[in-house]
């Protein structure tokens, strides 16, 4: 489990990156993302994109949208009351 002190921040932050045509076999882009709750890593992923990007910008956009989708999913499952309950239990 993760250990949070009472004064820990619960800011949800996401990072993403993409490598245009990173897979040498299929020329599909690869991407990854990491999500942090406070300073703790709570989710990460790395995979080949399902679509074939036509530019570096498009590969980055696909990566960013996947990261945003994960952050939004986490926000729906970690309500402010849930975060407050977690903080008080420490």
Automatic annotation (TrEMBL):
Protein name according to UniProt: Uncharacterized mitochondrial protein AtMg00810-like
Lineage, broadest ranks: Eukaryota, Viridiplantae, Streptophyta, Embryophyta, Tracheophyta
């Amino acid at each position: 489990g993760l250990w949070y002190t009472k004064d820990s921040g619960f800011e949800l932050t996401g990072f993403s990156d993409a490598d245009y045509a990173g897979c040498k076999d299929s020329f599909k882009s690869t991407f990854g993302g990491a999500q942090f709750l406070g300073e703790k890593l709570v989710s990460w992923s790395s995979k080949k994109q399902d679509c074939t990007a036509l530019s570096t910008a498009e590969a980055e956009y696909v990566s960013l949208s996947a990261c945003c989708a994960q952050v939004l999913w986490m926000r729906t499952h970690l309500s402010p009351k849930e975060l407050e309950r977690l903080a008080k239990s420490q």
